[in-house]
Amino acid sequence: MTSAAISNSSETVKSSPVLTALRRNRMAWLGGGTLFIIVLVAIFAPLIAPHDPLEQNILARLSPPSADFWLGTDSYGRDVLSRLLYGARISLSIGFLSVLTAMVVGSSLGMLAGYIGGVFEQIVMGLVDVLLSFPTLLLGLMIAAMLGSSFENLIIAIAITEIAPFARVARAPTIAVKRRDFVDAGRSLGLSPLRILGVHILPNILSDVVVVGSLWMASAIRTEASLAFIGLGVQPPTATWGGMIREGFDNILTAWWLVVFPSVAILITVLALNILGDALRDAIDPKTRSGQ
C-alpha cells in the first residue's frame, strides 16, 4: 500500500465520526440552516426584492414599516428591505472572499514554516506575531485607509488582518504530521516537499483550518460593517449593511428601522457562523465527540 493510500484511508476513517457528530448536533443544523437561508436570500435578491434598491421616492422618505414598504424607507425614499437583501450579497461576498484569501495565504505560510523550520520559520512567525499585535479593526482601518474605499481593496484589507490566525493554526499540526510514518514514506519515494505538503499534510490539517475559517468569516463581516460605518467600506449608493447603519444613524431617534433592521441582519449572520463554527470544532475534537 502506498503512502497516498494510507493517507486517504486514514482520512476516510477520520471523517466518519465527524460527520456523525455533526448530524447529531442540533446547533449545527440551526447555524447551518440559518446561514443557508441567508445565502439563498442573497443569491436570489433580484427576484425577492420588492423594489429597486437604488430607486428614490422623495414623497415616501422616512416612511415607517407599512404594507407598501415592509421595513420602511430611508432618507432618500429607498426601500429598506430591498437594500437589506442586496446588502447581504456585498457583506457575504466580502466576508467569504477575504477569509478564503487569508486561508490560502496564511495556511500556506504556516505549513511552509512548520515543514521547513529553522530560520524561515522564525521569520514567518515573527511577521505573524507583528500582525497579531494589532487589533483586527485597527489594522483593517489602516490598510483600508491606505488602499482606498472599494470592493477589492476592502477584501485585501480584511484578508491581511486574518492571515496570522490561519498561519498559526496551520503551523502547529504541520509540525506534528510531518513526523508521521506516511510522510517519511513519501520522502523515501522521492516525492517533492510541495507534493508532500499538498497530498499528505494538507488533508490532515484541513479540518482545523476550515473551523477557523467559519469563525473568522463572522469576524470579517463585523469588520466590513465597522469599516463601512466609518466611511471606509464600499461607497454609496451601493447597499451594504454597515453603510445602511451609517446612513440611518442621524435619524436613529425618529426612524429606528434604518438602524435596527441591518443591525439584526448582521447579528443573525454572525451568530449563525459562530454556532456553525463551534459545532464544527466540537465535531472535530475527539474529546468532545467521546463525551456526546
Automatic annotation (TrEMBL):
PANTHER family: D,D-DIPEPTIDE TRANSPORT SYSTEM PERMEASE PROTEIN DDPC-RELATED, OLIGOPEPTIDE TRANSPORT SYSTEM PERMEASE PROTEIN APPC. InterPro entries: BP-dependent_transpt_permease, MetI-like, MetI-like_sf, OppC_N. The lineage of its organism: Bacteria, Pseudomonadati, Pseudomonadota, Alphaproteobacteria, Rhodospirillales. It comes from Thalassospira mesophila. The chain crosses the membrane at residues 28-49, 90-116, 123-147, 197-218, 255-277. One of its GO terms (cellular component) is plasma membrane. Keywords: Cell membrane, Membrane, Peptide transport, Protein transport, Transmembrane, Transmembrane helix, Transport. This is ABC transporter permease. Pfam families: BPD_transp_1, OppC_N.
